[in-house]
Design brief:
Number of helices: 11
Strand content: 25-35%
Distance between the termini: 66 Å
Largest sheet: 5 strands, mixed
Structural class: alpha+beta
CATH superfamily of the largest domain: Quinoprotein alcohol dehydrogenase-like superfamily
CATH topology of the largest domain: Methanol Dehydrogenase, Chain A
Number of domains: 2
CATH architecture of the largest domain: 8 Propeller
CATH class of the largest domain: Mainly Beta
Length: about 675
């Protein structure tokens, strides 16, 4: 298929390979999730600087009509801003005025909300040859006419056997669109697929976990990977979903994918005799044209701590020991900052950016040395980083101006142990295989230790020296992704309920505005008619909400997420936050027996904790904070599906009415157990 070039394209979203490759020649555009193919999330615009950013104000905003996490970065092409909301609703705006041009609702199947481990989020969209490309939670890849907002084509991307979702952004290059998926928490087998961007027809697919050897292997890479697995892993699924980072290098014609964690989590359940389990928790390079394997680097051999390698992949040219190297950089969950030769896969350097105890270093072959004491059984073992990782999905930025990478860091701890009664049910979520029930002395000690030692900060990391240059501490984890600009600025949403700017060279706070939300997404920058703008989605949620509720952050909180757009001298104001007159509702303790409570705890861990947090602490919706009305409607919600349109589908196919009553009794006890901690004398 012939690839169109910019000169041959007219109208909205006039994007092609040449234009994306030369994106730095158009600094006012933001045509891809990370702006350029290298995904540095760096804007060459310098009208807004550390010296004048104090004059930055709100130019326009748009309310997003859903109360869920918002993780996407918009794109901007030729004066039109394209944004994507939860449930994959896609909207085009005049980038200067905020006027809505069109809105496309793919009508995502609300039942899929059950399969999304970390909220019904999406992380972005793509543009190519007059089309906006989106990937939906329920597995469709859709092309939308950028001028009209009408669907051009749609293709299904899922194997229906496993509980897949899509939360990542599609990437486009050379007439192809790439997408992966999520679902490793349900043990789904991972893969990434390339489709024809004009027709939606599949071109190639690369699996990240080998299939049944009896069926033969689809490639030499799968045969090689199979040697690192044991037992009947293909019956378990394996995990390894490609749920976020995909990066393309036009110079080498290579695609780099970040591969997720294993499923189930404990090594003993998916690969009983051990093994590295390729390509779990790995960075893999593929030929852009065919999807053939080129090289890999495994960040966490034999992963069983949810140490995904799906975090930001950034391409850059760095001078290392006097030589310019084409490198790939990543700060994945496991706590190492990696610098890798992106042509060969050679590890150039790896150093911890946060405290860790799962690994004792890197061996002579560049392989992480796993601490055997971090391998857990039925007795809980405290491991750091915890499953949230030292750095999670929140995008990292790299400034070629300062030579520094910027990303949010969390020091956290968790007590891991296997669930000895684990029985896998293919096709369902919460197939982790770890113990999440009970509250023994070891778990209590781990939580108390974590409460004293958990930390969160923004780091500026020197990838050549492999050292931190500065940091900005935060009270709790949850601050957002990063944008770096040529104005010596780094922008980030904060858990203080603000959008903030720091000097990129020194980390000095130079501007901050309360925004009634936490912008967990990464901002972008663009220009229209000679004026520079900064845009960011602000909406608390996702996996971060599993441990921290919005109410606990301590600022006036808007229930409506928003798209916020700023420029110098702007004076738009946000409306006041609506407050409720009634206080929190404390239900009367139930009179059911302890056995029923215990059964409810087990059922909650199996079916609810993935969205509502371990022991009901936090989650997408903190169920310890249910209103009087929600308690009264509990059975109708859980069994009847009365809140399906909001993402809470019926669980009647999995649990019975007595089961739902046991879960409700458990939640009432949890509310009363934590009441003083949450509300004191309120």
């Amino acid at each position: 298929m012939a690839v169109l070039h910019a000169a041959a394209i007219a109208g909205p979203a006039a994007v092609d390979n040449d234009r994306l490759t030369a994106a730095d020649r158009e600094p006012g555009e933001w045509m891809a999730p990370g702006r350029t193919y290298g995904e540095q999330r760096y804007s060459p615009l310098a009208q807004i600087t550390a010296d004048n950013v104090s004059n930055l104000g709100l130019a326009w905003y748009a309310d997003l009509p859903v109360d869920r996490g918002v993780e996407a970065s918009p794109i901007v092409v030729d004066g039109v801003l394209y944004n994507i909301e939860p449930w994959n609703v896609t909207v085009a705006y005049d980038a200067k005025t905020g006027k809505e041009l069109w809105r496309f609702d793919p009508k995502v199947d609300r039942e899929k909300g059950r399969h999304a481990c970390c909220d019904i989020v999406t992380r972005g969209l793509a543009a190519w040859n007059g089309k906006i490309i989106i990937a939906t939670l329920d597995g469709r890849l859709i092309a939308i006419d950028a001028a009209t907002g009408k669907q051009v084509w749609s293709t299904a991307t899922f194997d229906p056997v496993w509980p897949y979702t899509i939360t990542g952004a599609p990437r486009v290059y050379n007439g192809k669109v790439l997408i992966g998926n999520a679902g490793a928490e349900g043990a789904a087998r991972g893969y990434v697929t390339a489709y024809d961007v004009e027709t939606g027809k599949q071109i190639w697919r690369f699996y990240t976990v080998p299939g049944n050897p009896a069926d033969g292997f689809t490639s030499d890479a799968m045969a090689m990977a199979a040697k690192t697995w044991t037992g009947d892993w293909w019956k378990r699924g394996g995990g390894g979903t490609v749920w976020d980072s995909i990066v393309y290098d036009p110079d080498l014609d290579l695609v780099y994918i970040g591969v997720g964690n294993g499923g189930p989590w404990p090594l003993r359940y998916r690969s009983p005799q051990g093994g590295d389990n390729l390509f779990l928790s790995s960075i893999v390079a593929l030929k852009g044209d065919t999807g053939e394997y080129v090289w890999h680097y495994q960040t966490t051999p034999g992963d069983e701590w949810d140490f995904t390698a799906t975090q930001s992949l950034i391409l850059a040219d760095l001078v290392i020991k006097g030589k310019t190297r084409k490198v790939l950089m990543q700060a994945p969950k496991n706590g190492y900052y990696y610098v890798i030769d992106r042509a060969t896969g050679e590890l150039i350097s790896a150093e911890p950016y946060v405290a860790m105890n799962w690994s004792t270093g890197i061996d002579a072959n560049g392989k992480p040395i796993v601490n055997p004491e971090a391998r857990y059984g039925e007795v809980p073992v405290i491991v750091t980083p915890g499953p949230g990782g030292g750095h999670n999905w929140n995008p990292m930025a790299f400034s070629p101006q300062t030579g520094l990478a910027y990303f949010p860091v969390t020091e956290m701890y968790m007590a891991f142990s296997v669930n000895p009664d684990f029985e896998q049910t293919p096709g369902q979520m919460s197939q982790l295989g770890i113990s999440t029930t009970g509250y023994d002395i070891t778990r209590k000690a781990a939580q108390e230790y974590a409460a004293k030692h958990n930390k969160a900060w923004l780091t500026a990391w020197d990838p050549v020296a492999q050292k931190e240059r500065w940091r900005v501490p935060y009270p709790v984890r949850g601050s957002g992704g990063l944008l770096a600009t040529a104005g010596n600025l780094v922008f980030q949403g904060t858990v203080r309920g603000t959008f903030a700017a720091y000097s990129a060279d020194a980390g000095k706070l130079v501007w901050e505005m309360p925004v009634q939300q936490v912008p967990i997404a990464a901002a972008i920058s663009y220009s229209v008619d000679g004026e520079q703008y900064i845009a960011v989605n602000a909406g608390w949620g996702g996996g971060l909400a599993h441990s921290t509720t919005a109410e606990s952050l301590g600022f006036p909180f808007s229930k409506s997420p928003r798209l916020l757009v700023f420029r110098l001298g702007a004076t738009e104001k946000l409306p006041p936050v609506e407050t409720k007159d009634e206080g929190p509702y404390r239900p009367e303790p139930t009179k059911v027996d302890d056995a029923t409570i215990a059964r409810g705890e087990t059922l909650f861990a199996d079916h609810c904790a993935a969205c509502h947090g371990a022991r009901a602490r936090g989650g997408v919706k903190d169920l310890r904070m249910m209103s009087r009305e929600t308690h009264a409607e509990f059975q109708d919600i859980v069994i009847g599906g009365s809140r399906r349109e909001k993402g809470m589908a019926s669980f009647a196919d999995i649990i019975s009415v007595p089961d739902a009553k046991a879960i409700h009794a458990y939640l009432i006890r949890r509310t009363n157990e934590d009441w003083d901690e949450m509300y004191g004398d309120k």
